[in-house]
Design goal:
mainly beta, 6-stranded mixed sheet, 4-stranded antiparallel sheet, 42% strand
Length: 397
């Protein structure tokens, strides 16, 4: 793998965008021909080791990659859940460092009867993992859909997790023509025993029409929620890449929330947030829609970042960071399973999926993201290979 470049990122000409040099980005799965998706980073401070949770292959399986040199090189993916005799498709979500050698992650299995949600724990820094245990449902029996890592409040003396906040969502009954079967409702709940048991959830009315919600504790104690929001009415029948991005704040430790302030009505989502040593908050997210097509008609996709200097109250949209950007490999919006699928696959196969950002000891940021820039259709309607990209970057002074 190419070594990281130490140069400072530079400002693009004629605008306020900060563009990270391409040499600061590497594709860590470039030698693989399988699908590798849904990256989630976790940092173990005691050993300065990075873990990367990914989902590999078809049927999907939950894997872990490790780095002992702060993201310069990575191990091959290794499966971490027990063999499944039913050969179900598993997706991994939201790996979270809990301190004292402990980690947790979520996983979903997709048998013919429908989704099933599980959780697995590690007590040895990710070397081994427990058998999956069912994720506690909501107070009225609705299945809990997790996407983002937990917000962990740690004991200042021991460094161990003392309180955990978890977000989830469910789809509301079909009352409007939305691809998800109606609008979604995001929720939050809390645990004081490392996520084994949970208090009854809170369903903020302000989070109606939101699903995936990432959390960050600001320096002044505010909890900042970056919300993926359902697509606006003109895009009800389109792919969920048209979903948008906004933020909501809680001043009372997550009990009540402000209205969602919208950054983008559509095309940008999958946020991840990091609090910097000076209490700035950095948010990364994907750009699936919104960039203009290239001159020869191909779509463009990317990974961006914005910063808040006031504990999440406002965000500097005028000075965005472009962490990565690439050209698609297909034109048009072909239906997913039409007859000539292999010859005319959807343009969105090359798009991005998920961001996960960690602050490293030297003050740089490492952002992992999913990309399909090498993707092509398979006979089963999947696209492969898909890749995991890594960008190491820093904030301009």
């Amino acid at each position: 793998m190419t070594q990281w470049q130490s140069q400072q990122i530079t400002l693009a000409e004629d605008d306020n965008l900060t563009v990270v040099p391409r040499e600061n980005c590497q594709i860590v799965t470039e030698t693989s021909e399988q699908s590798v998706t849904l990256p989630y980073l976790a940092y173990i401070p005691e050993s300065q080791k990075l873990l990367l949770l990914v989902t590999c292959g078809f049927p999907h399986q939950v894997n872990l990659m490790t780095s002992d040199d702060l993201g310069i090189t990575w191990s091959d993916p290794r499966p971490i859940l027990p063999d499944d005799p039913e050969k179900r498709s598993w997706l991994g979500f939201g790996i979270t460092w809990l301190g004292a050698g402990r980690l947790a992650l979520a996983a979903s299995a997709s048998p013919p009867s429908g989704d099933m949600r599980f959780r697995s724990y590690s007590d040895d820094c990710g070397q081994t993992w427990s058998d999956p245990v069912p994720i506690q449902r909501t107070s009225d029996g609705i299945e809990w859909h997790q996407w983002d890592p937990w917000l962990v409040d740690s004991d200042p003396e021991t460094g161990e997790a003392s309180r955990i906040a978890e977000t989830g969502y469910f789809c509301l009954p079909e009352n409007e023509p939305c691809p998800r079967g109606g609008y979604s409702q995001a929720m939050i709940r809390f645990s004081e025993d490392l996520g084994r048991t949970w208090q009854d959830e809170i369903r903020p009315p302000q989070w109606h029409k939101a699903d995936e919600v990432a959390l960050c504790r600001a320096g002044n104690g505010t909890i900042v929620a970056a919300c993926r929001i359902n697509q606006p009415k003109p895009y009800w029948h389109d792919i969920d890449h048209y979903e948008g991005l906004g933020f909501s704040l809680s001043k009372d430790d997550g009990l009540t929330w402000s209205d969602v302030q919208v950054f983008y009505e559509w095309g940008r989502h999958h946020p991840s947030m990091v609090r910097m040593p000076n209490d700035d908050i950095v948010m990364t997210y994907v750009v699936r829609k919104g960039y203009p097509n290239t001159a020869d008609g191909y779509p463009q996709f990317g990974i961006e970042a914005i910063i808040s200097h006031d504990h999440g109250e406002t965000w500097d949209m005028a000075h965005r960071y472009i962490l990565s950007q690439w050209k698609g490999n297909a034109k048009g919006e072909a239906p997913e399973l039409e007859a000539d699928f292999r010859a005319k696959w959807p343009r969105w196969f090359a798009s991005c999926q998920a961001t996960s950002t960690q602050l490293l000891p030297d003050g740089t940021l490492l952002t992992a993201f999913g990309t399909g820039y090498r993707s092509a259709p398979t006979e089963h309607g999947h696209c492969s290979p898909r890749d995991i990209g890594m960008v190491r970057w820093m904030i301009n002074e």
